[in-house]
Write a structure and sequence with these properties.
CATH class of the largest domain: Alpha Beta
Largest sheet: 4 strands, mixed
CATH architecture of the largest domain: Roll
Structural class: alpha/beta
Number of domains: 2
Distance between the termini: 18 Å
Radius of gyration: 15 Å
Number of strands: 8
Strand order of the largest sheet: 1-4-3-2
CATH superfamily of the largest domain: 2,3-Dihydroxybiphenyl 1,2-Dioxygenase, domain 1
CATH topology of the largest domain: 2,3-Dihydroxybiphenyl 1,2-Dioxygenase, domain 1
Number of helices: 4
Shape: globular
């Protein structure tokens, strides 16, 4: 089994896609007006509009209602990313901070309120836990 993607459901596909294009620095594949994907090494971030929810079962997903998952991206230099994204990020949750498990993390919310973590392993132990 391979982990393929995380899909975020939103009422505004263009806004959320544009936000993640800025965060990742990668262009999205905009397959339809209600579905886009940002393909990254290891997994894909998919963004679906509310119209796609009916395809999975009416009421199976709700936009802007996540408070239990964190979308995480490993980056080379979290402090440099913070400087680059400072004006893009609306709600900053935590400026770059070194966590007890050895990652330096930046936490913020996307336009729909989903928590996003950019992190860089900064200890040898943290780096050893990460896949290449």
């Amino acid at each position: 089994m391979n982990f393929a993607s995380v899909r975020l459901i939103t009422a505004d596909v263009d806004r959320l896609t544009g936000f993640y294009e800025q965060v990742t620095g990668r262009p999205a594949r905009r397959h339809t007006p209600v579905f886009s994907e940002i393909v990254l090494p290891g997994a894909t971030l998919a963004i679906g509009g509310t119209a796609t929810v009916a395809l999975f079962g009416e009421g199976s997903a709700e936009p802007a209602a996540n408070r239990s998952a964190i979308v995480e991206f490993r980056v080379d230099d979290v402090d440099a990313e913070y400087a680059r994204l400072r004006d893009v990020v609306g709600e900053l949750v935590q400026a770059p901070t070194t966590m007890p498990w050895g990652n330096r993390s930046l936490l913020f919310r996307d336009p729909d309120g989903t928590l996003v973590n950019l992190f860089t392993p900064v200890t040898a132990e943290a780096a050893a836990r990460q896949r290449p």
